[in-house]
Automatic annotation (TrEMBL), chain A:
It comes from Stygiobacter electus. Keywords: 2Fe-2S, Disulfide bond, Iron, Iron-sulfur, Membrane, Metal-binding, Transmembrane, Transmembrane helix. The keyword Iron applies. PROSITE patterns: RIESKE. This is Rieske (2Fe-2S) protein. PANTHER family: CYTOCHROME B-C1 COMPLEX SUBUNIT RIESKE, MITOCHONDRIAL. Pfam families: Rieske. Residues 51-145 form the Rieske domain. Its cofactor is [2Fe-2S] cluster.
TrEMBL record, chain B:
GO terms for biological process: respiratory electron transport chain. This is Cytochrome b N-terminal domain-containing protein. One of its GO terms (molecular function) is electron transfer activity. The chain crosses the membrane at residues 37-63, 90-111, 123-142, 188-210, 239-257, 302-320, 332-353. Residues 8-220 form the Cytochrome b/b6 N-terminal region profile domain. The keyword Transmembrane helix applies. The keyword Transport applies. Residues 220-354 form the Cytochrome b/b6 C-terminal region profile domain. It is a multi-pass membrane protein. It is found in: Membrane. Keywords: Electron transport, Heme, Iron, Membrane, Metal-binding, Respiratory chain, Transmembrane, Transmembrane helix, Transport. GO terms for cellular component: membrane.
Length: 150, 354
């Protein structure tokens, strides 16, 4: 009794329907692996909690060094004998690596002339945010750099 | 000798009827008028493309596309391989001249309104080829893996990331990793020597086919003084020009060989004087002039959206220039073209002197 009330789909439409679905499925089957292939696999981020600079005798006062903190570069400046500054070295504008300009006492990005003061504050040029801060502690003639607790 | 040639010709002709093609070519005419000179720039661009293909293939024989070896392999090409410096230098110079002649070719076509019916598709394919050439330039710039290229690529791909929604995935697709790394180099190598050449050749084929089928356009405003057969008259003139261009190229490549610079080092600060290639300079410089916030929109984002829409409008000129399509004079086209040229030149110069 049910069958009489059900609408019949014409055979032609039915085939069209099947063909459309299978074509789409087929296309997805081709496109999906390609798109996934192009997406670079997630590499395990190295969780680093600190980096050490041990050779402090080579680190002259007024000099700067760039060290790797996990995947990120960090700029370390030796201001005085016992005073170190550690900041992220990735410019907040477009990610270029910054450098310390001793004569002007600023941190400078060559890419678009962005400037930061020695606390990491963006003072001129395009950078929208200050540089991230890190903590540098001196212990037994070794410099230990850790993330600033926010 | 001649008999042999004739025999071969008729052997082929019997099978594939090339005499039709020859007849077609001999019936093709190039109009002569005071602006005829512009007809040659397309051919010259084609010539540079051929040089790029040849020197590019030669370079792949020694080039190694990995971050550990790319720089060293180019050093090897330049110092150990015989004429390696020359081949690389020609590739670099020819790339620049290629884009330069495309600019001229494109703007001359624009001012002559050659894009009007029935040549809309020729224009569209041509602009696509122009965009592809820029991508060629951008991807090829990174391959030596030197400091300048490293930071230019960093900035260039970072700008892509500014675009909302699609920006980040697109950036990842281009870079192959969060940052510009060896993975980026591998990708750019694949783009530069596999993907782009394939797409470029395909579109170029269509572009040239359209030009052959439709013949040279006659200008709207110039008086045509006569016609010149495409083959052999125009073709031979083209060849002479190619020879001239080849000489210019050789002089530039020999006396101003391209440099290699320092190897890219992610832990070194960006060197002063970071610059993109000259054909990106006007965009780079305009982005610099935009303040970081305009109302609520990010300045950079606004710049990218503006350049993006300008690119789309440029691609679609034949479809919105209704006046020319109706056979009327459209002064607006002149103004747009002149504005674009002045803007590009001024911004480029500012980029170099500032
Ligand atoms: S990337 Fe540092 S100022 Fe633009």
């Amino acid at each position: 009794m049910n069958t009489t009330t059900q609408k019949k789909i014409p055979r032609k439409d039915f085939f069209k329907y099947i063909i459309n679905i299978s074509t789409s499925a087929f296309l997805i089957l081709i496109v999906y692996p390609i798109v996934s292939f192009l997406k670079p696999p997630k590499q395990r981020e190295v969780e680093v909690s600190d980096v050490k600079i041990s050779n402090l005798d080579d680190f002259a006062i007024g000099d700067s060094k760039i060290v790797r903190f996990g995947n990120k570069p960090i700029i370390v400046i030796r201001k005085e004998k016992e005073q170190f500054i550690a900041l992220s070295a990735a410019c907040t504008h477009l990610d270029c690596t910054v450098q310390y300009k001793k004569d002007e006492s600023i941190i400078w990005c060559a890419c678009h002339n962005g400037k930061y003061d020695l606390t990491g504050r963006n003072i001129s040029g395009p950078p929208p945010r200050p540089l991230d801060k890190f903590v540098a502690t001196l212990k037994n003639n070794e410099l230990i750099i850790t993330k600033a607790s926010s | 000798m001649k008999k042999l040639f004739n025999n071969i010709y008729s052997w082929i002709d019997e099978r594939v009827q090339i005499s039709d093609l020859v007849k077609f070519m001999s019936k093709k005419y190039v109009p002569i008028h005071s602006h005829s000179i512009w007809y040659y720039f397309g051919g010259v661009s084609l010539f540079f493309f051929i040089i790029q293909v040849v020197t590019g293939i030669l370079l792949t024989f020694y080039y190694k596309g990995s971050s550990e070896q790319a720089y060293e392999s180019i050093k090897f090409i330049m110092s150990k391989v015989e004429f390696g410096w020359l081949i690389r230098s020609i590739h670099a110079w020819s790339a620049n001249l290629f884009i330069f002649t495309i600019f001229i070719h494109m703007f001359s076509v624009f001012f002559e309104r050659t894009y009007r019916k029935p040549r809309e598709l020729t224009w569209v394919t041509g602009v696509l080829l122009f965009f592809l050439s820029l991508s060629f330039g951008f991807s090829g710039y990174l391959l030596p893996w030197n400091e300048l290229a490293y930071f230019a690529t960093k900035v260039g791909t970072d700008i892509v990331g500014v675009v909302p929604i699609i920006g980040e995935p697109l950036k990842l697709l281009l870079r192959g990793s969060e940052d510009v790394t060896g993975a980026t180099l591998s990708r750019f190598f694949a783009f530069h020597v596999m993907l782009l050449p394939l797409i470029f050749s395909l579109i170029l084929f269509i572009h040239l086919l359209l030009v052959q089928i439709q013949g040279m356009s006659e200008p709207v405003e110039e008086k045509v003084k006569g016609n010149m057969p495409f083959f052999p008259n125009f073709f031979l003139r083209d060849l002479i020009l190619w020879l001239l261009v080849l000489n210019i190229l050789a002089v530039l490549a020999v006396f101003f060989p391209s440099e290699l610079g320092l190897k890219a080092n992610p832990l070194a600060p960006a060197p002063a004087g970071i610059k993109p290639e000259w054909y990106f300079m006007f965009m780079f410089q305009s982005l610099k002039f935009l303040p970081s916030k305009i109302l609520f929109i990010d300045g950079e984002l606004l710049g990218i959206l503006l350049f993006g829409s300008a690119g789309v409008l440029w691609l679609l000129v034949p479809f919105w220039d209704r006046k020319t399509a109706r056979g009327q004079k459209n002064r607006l086209i002149n103004y747009i073209g002149i504005f674009a040229i002045i803007f590009i030149i001024v911004m480029t110069i500012l980029g170099w002197v500032l």
